[in-house]
């Protein structure tokens, strides 16, 4: 077995002190200081504006992919509104490479519940839903259990902890559609329809679930809230770096010795994260990395080695931090094959509403597929770029861009490899080398 | 059509939503129905539609949109292997091939004895545990080396 001498986290806020067997239980959460933030605001009757101001100061940015400032988003909710308003948590985690929300919900579900209750208090919402990814049934069941515990403990429901504040929260289980991670697709899905994204504007803050004002945040975003309330926005910001507050949970997958979730301060060097993951599998060289989930542009290994893990550094290097899913590829990776699998995914998951996305994703996949299968044509690389350009920015939701960005970046950074494929009708990296690089069995047996 | 137990579970789902939005429970209702009947026939979908007071076509739309509903019979055990890129980098294809070899079927096929159906899946949000596979939509299996796959198949009788 690998020797584990590297920590899994640095200054963790969300995945801290979860070593206990039953870390998800209410009792354990309270023993670690859980629900103190909710108690505090209810006891002190903190004005909602003050909570939102605290979040703005913290520079917490949405952890679901777009990195939108959370405090600002919360301030968009209408304050004086007669009818029902809704709060929704996005735990649909389907972006390839992302598996952090699963761990947050498995090991620390009450932190998400507490974060949502605080959000509901700040925005005056009485009802919320947590939309949980279809494939993680055990996580859904555990969250349901946590909800029961929270209700019984007086942390959810009518007159929470004896105050005037009431908030009901329910879990909604997805059933296998990546597009429901897109916030308006998700709302349609909760309404019991196909998860097809809506035109924006109107934005959910004015027309959301059942047509009512709604705020949607990612699981990790809500989980960050109790810490900020307890320690203050300024402290949170200090943990990260300016404009990139706090810690971030990275999901590291691919060719490393220890794939897994790592919570580290924003701005931690990528090289440090790689070290925490036990380094490259088999001591091989880093060829490429997608730093923010499959929808973000790929970066060459040497560029990546110079990056820090925060929104601004990754953007400067030409990609995006996205959901914090770090996909590591070593020199045994065939970039054409890798792109082919991703392109298939977007083709398969396009909801089909917009012509550029519905037709374009299929087109991209077919062209990459034919290059991979030795039938590529010299003009194909320009074709890929032009099809990508004609999808991006011309669709209802960002899945179109998500399909286009990987294609453009793979071709841009690894063009010679694509050209070799077209000319020689085979991979630059021999197939047996690729297979050996990805097969984990051999190495597991050896260590 | 569905057992009392299933209807009770569906009622619990309906109660999560405002009374005028019973339709919100359609996804859960279909999942519960599928668990009980193995797959979603037109009759089952029509039953769910009338139970929730929605048009049958709207139920059908939902059932066809989400990947985990089965609109045709599947084996007693449906095994879905993730082959998306992060998993593929850590043995996703090797695991899929090994299962194919053991069962003697390809993706979207069912063994002649009706016991196993094999599907290719998209990211399940568990890439750190690759290779991963899902049994009957509910049971996630992590780190599926050949020995683990052997053990699992021996258990799924
Ligand atoms: C195709 C697509 C898939 C998405 N998938 C997810 C997802 O799985 N989880 C998530 O939190 N956000 C996802 N998003 C982003 C959401 O639309 C939304 O921006 C986010 O949930 C807002 O929460 P945040 O501000 O806390 O990040 C996706 C967006 C798109 C376009
Ligand atoms: S961009 Fe694609 S996924 Fe998004 S709404 Fe249009 S067709 Fe659907
Ligand atoms: S890629 Fe297989 S679970 Fe994410």
From TrEMBL, chain B:
It holds the Pfam family 2Fe-2S_thioredx. Its cofactor is [2Fe-2S] cluster. [2Fe-2S] cluster binds at residues 82, 87, 123, 127. Keywords: 2Fe-2S, Iron, Iron-sulfur, Metal-binding, Oxidoreductase. Binds 1 [2Fe-2S] cluster. Coiled coil: none annotated. The keyword Metal-binding applies. GO terms for molecular function: 2 iron, 2 sulfur cluster binding; metal ion binding; NADH dehydrogenase activity. CDD domains: TRX_Fd_NuoE. Gene3D superfamilies: Glutaredoxin (3.40.30.10), NADH-quinone oxidoreductase subunit E (1.10.10.1590). Its EC number is 1.6.5.11. It catalyses: a quinone + NADH + 5 H(+)(in) = a quinol + NAD(+) + 4 H(+)(out). It is an enzyme of class 1 (oxidoreductase). PANTHER family: NADH DEHYDROGENASE [UBIQUINONE] FLAVOPROTEIN 2, MITOCHONDRIAL, NADH DEHYDROGENASE UBIQUINONE FLAVOPROTEIN 2, MITOCHONDRIAL. Belongs to the complex I 24 kDa subunit family. This is NADH-quinone oxidoreductase subunit NuoE. The gene is nuoE.
